[in-house]
Request: fold
Amino acid sequence: MMNRFSFLQLLFSHKIEIQKFMKKIKSLFLFVLPAVAIFYACNGQSGYAIKGNIAGAANLQVMLEQAHFDRSSTAIGKATCDGSGNFEIKSEKPFEQGLYRMTIGAKRVFLVLDGKEKAVELKGSLEKIDRFEGLEISGSETFSCYAGILKELFAAQIKSADEARTYIKRGCNPFMQAILTSSLLGSNAAEALEDFKSSAKVLNDYMPGSKYATDYSNMVNSLQAQLAQQQAAETIKVGMPAPEISLPGPDGKVRSLSAMKGKIVLLDFWASWCGPCRRANPHVVEIYNKYKNKGFDVFSVSLDKQDGKEKWIQAIKQDGLVWDNHVSDLQYWNSAPAAVYGVRGIPKTFLIGRDGKIVAIDPRNTLEQELLKVL
Reply:
């Protein structure tokens, strides 16, 4: 089975499973509470630069990258500290508003810039940069704000989500607040879903169309879908009414699962890009042709992408899926019905009786036997 969410555990089963899930869900977020870099730069310098005088960093290499919520990064520049720990990273254009990751030797630290900086001036000690002790910053009010909040956080040892929210609100702009939200609430993402949704909306208003806003929204949407799937996985059981699905088919005509009540229906979640799904299709076709005149039918829900509609249509023809009920919202893993049914991997099937209730879950290898029980 192709399974994008194989690392997720059932969320709401019991306390131990919740704890395991929360440890895993943290991987959705790039930033656990980060340390911050220390720099020193001179005024009057032409162009744009970040300079540092870092005690204890003699002859160490310094690398600067712009970091994003999707874990990608863009190299900005690099330098080598001299014998006194001085370094300089120049740029011919302004530093973009964003989050930056700096590596100094074996230390990795983060800073936030608002895009208005010309020369960022910092001075400090390599030994203490991860706790901001003795840190001197000038040239960036935004970075100074971020560093000040983090310095307090290291000393405060936050113990509750409400306490974390007081620090998040102190972020000097919505972008910084989004970073702090993922840093401080990422370990309790399920309980803090509304915080993340609110942060994503405000960030999108603040930085519309930016990669940061888009990536953050995608991250939150993925979290929301995964949580819905975890809940659904606990609620979709044999004997319960099959939740409604009403979506357009390849021709644009809306088809509804409820319209098939009175038949025995195999609800099949699949996609044209799913190898195991395509390999399973011949057996489904065989069973369909054998029992279609006895009240058996198939309702296929595709998890294809928006730009994969043609591949979806081609796969239907190539695999001989001759039944009429093919639907999709073309939202890939964000498929609404997939979330409702707790689909974490495909192929995923549900056999539904004539009364509209689920009689078997994943009867792929025993489809004919299960079907004969209810025909």
The chain has a mean pLDDT of 86. The two ends are 28 Å apart (CA to CA). The chain has ten helices and 15 strands.
